[in-house]
Design brief:
With 433 residues, the chain is an alpha/beta fold. Helix 2 crosses helix 3, helix 4 (164-183) packs across helix 5 and helix 5 runs parallel beside helix 6 (244-252). It has 9 helices and 23 strands. The chain starts with 7 loop residues before the first strand and ends with a strand. It has helices at 52-58, 63-74, 122-132, 164-183, 210-227, 244-252, 274-280, 300-315, 357-366, and strands at 8-11, 18-19, 24-25, 33-42, 45-49, 84-89, 137-142, 150-151, 159-160, 190-192, 233-239, 261-267, 285-290, 320-325, 327-329, 344-347, 352-355, 374-379, 386-390, 396-402, 408-413, 418-423, 427-432. Strand 6, helix 3 (122-132) and strand 7 (137-142) form a beta-alpha-beta unit. It has 2 domains: 8-40 and 376-432, Golgi alpha-mannosidase II (Immunoglobulin-like, Sandwich); 44-368, Glycosidases (TIM Barrel), CATH 3.20.20.
Length: 433
């Protein structure tokens, strides 16, 4: 992707994705942002999540419209350029209904394991993305084990049984998922052990303690993947808690569990543990695994909040950021009654669609920050609303928000020069330096 120094894209609520500028050099003005070029974490990429209701929304559209949306999400040269994606193992809260890949009670050997349902909704969605991004990096997580493995035997509460034969069977279940996708020509690069283990929800869920995750990884899942020679990584995720000591430290400090853990995935309240994790384990990859989902209204106000989430995770050491519902029908209502935001909304009655403000927030980062870029350190008054990266092609990118109701002048110094930009009121901005 060719980038020209001085390129400036600005988005406001009424005028998204406008060429701003000019960005000019200056010798005057009080510097309020300094780029010191110190390198921090390497960037793995941006992504979104596949779910059943997303594909159902897309199939309501004409083929050309559906292709335009998928291009806007996954085309490697334009739009959000997503290179990472998440899949559910069984039903997520945005499945059309509850299911697992094996509801045959007592089938410890997984003779009845099947991914047949995924071929109806998830595989068509996934294959459209893979056509555009053949090297798409996929990670998968369960919202709930099969009900017969849980105590009590329900999909939306409880915890995994502690019986050794159940723990072994569940490790086999997850390995079978990886191998079943392999047979379809799809590589699952990571398995995150449990979606939101600190969540007792009315939709598919399962509660785990940090000690339970540690014991399952070191005693069952890790050895199972090793015996079956699976290259799929095991991640401690997707953690929705800021209890660093009770979860992250408990697992990573265990000498038998640690060798099996390739990274940590955080979402929601997990944002409170990102800085401590990066400080304690600076070489360990940390992914933000699910953008906080809003209330289905897709407002500009919530887009501001999402910008803050991106800035927080990136500035505190995350290596990737993953949106949740890429596409939903208008209103964003889940099967279990929770309304959520999305990057694209579809009206099936009129067969029309639109980009939401959060699409533009994600694009401001994802279009300009490449995989394997290095985050650069920023200081100054604007640093709390900005991130900067050095791309592999040596281009430098600044993404900055002006949260104020009036035009504000930004004066950036990178040591060799000073550049200035008059940032529009209440705007998101991407600038190639």
């Amino acid at each position: 992707m060719e980038r020209k120094s001085g390129l400036w894209i600005a988005s406001t609520e009424k005028t998204p994705w406008q060429v701003g500028g000019p960005v000019g050099s200056t010798r005057r003005g009080e510097v309020n942002l300094t780029l010191d070029r110190r390198r921090d974490q390497v960037w793995d990429g941006f992504g979104g999540c596949f779910n059943e209701l997303g594909w159902i929304a897309l199939t309501a559209l004409r083929g050309a419209d559906r292709n335009r949306i998928l291009d806007a999400l996954f085309d490697p040269e334009d739009g959000c350029r997503f290179n990472i994606a998440r899949l559910p193992i069984g039903a997520s809260d945005y499945a059309a209904e509850w299911y697992s890949h094996n509801e045959v009670d007592g089938d410890l050997a997984m003779k009845h394991f099947s991914i047949a349902r995924d071929r109806q909704y998830l595989f068509p969605y996934l294959r459209e993305a893979l056509q555009r991004r053949p090297k798409l990096k996929l990670f998968a997580s369960p919202w709930s084990p099969p009900t017969w493995m849980k105590e009590p035997r329900v999909y939306n509460y409880g915890t995994l049984s502690g019986k050794p034969e159940i723990l072994e069977a569940y490790a086999l279940y997850l390995a079978r998922f990886v191998k079943a996708y392999q047979r379809e020509g799809v590589t699952i690069h990571q398995v995150h052990v449990q979606n939101e283990p600190v969540a007792d929800q009315k939709f598919p869920s399962c509660v785990w303690t940090g000690a339970q995750l540690r014991d399952f990884i070191r005693g069952h899942l890790g050895p199972r993947f090793r015996r079956e020679r699976l290259s799929t990584e095991i991640w401690l995720g997707t953690l929705n808690t800021d209890d660093y000591n009770g979860y992250t430290l408990t697992c990573l400090s265990d000498p038998k569990a640690r060798p099996f853990i390739a990274g940590v995935g955080y979402q929601w309240a997990g944002k409170g543990a990102v800085q401590r994790t990066h400080a304690s384990w600076p070489d360990l990859r940390i992914w933000q695994t699910e953008n906080e989902c809003g209330d289905g209204r897709n407002t500009w106000e919530y887009a501001r909040y999402v910008f803050g989430l991106l800035q927080h995770y990136i500035s505190n050491g995350a290596n990737a950021y993953v949106y949740w519902n890429m596409v939903l029908q208008e209103g964003g209502r889940s099967t279990w009654g929770w309304k959520q935001n999305s990057m694209v909304t579809v009206d099936p009655a009129t067969r029309t669609w639109r980009f939401t403000p959060e699409y533009y927030v994600m694009r401001h980062f994802a279009q300009f920050i490449d995989k394997d870029a290095y985050r650069l350190n920023l200081t100054g008054a604007w640093a709390g609303n900005a991130v900067a990266f050095l791309n592999p092609d040596d281009s430098r990118v600044l993404v900055v928000q002006n949260p104020h109701a009036e035009v504000r002048r930004m004066v950036l110094s990178d040591g060799d020069r000073m550049v200035t930009a008059m940032l529009p009121p209440d705007s998101f901005n991407s600038i190639v330096l």
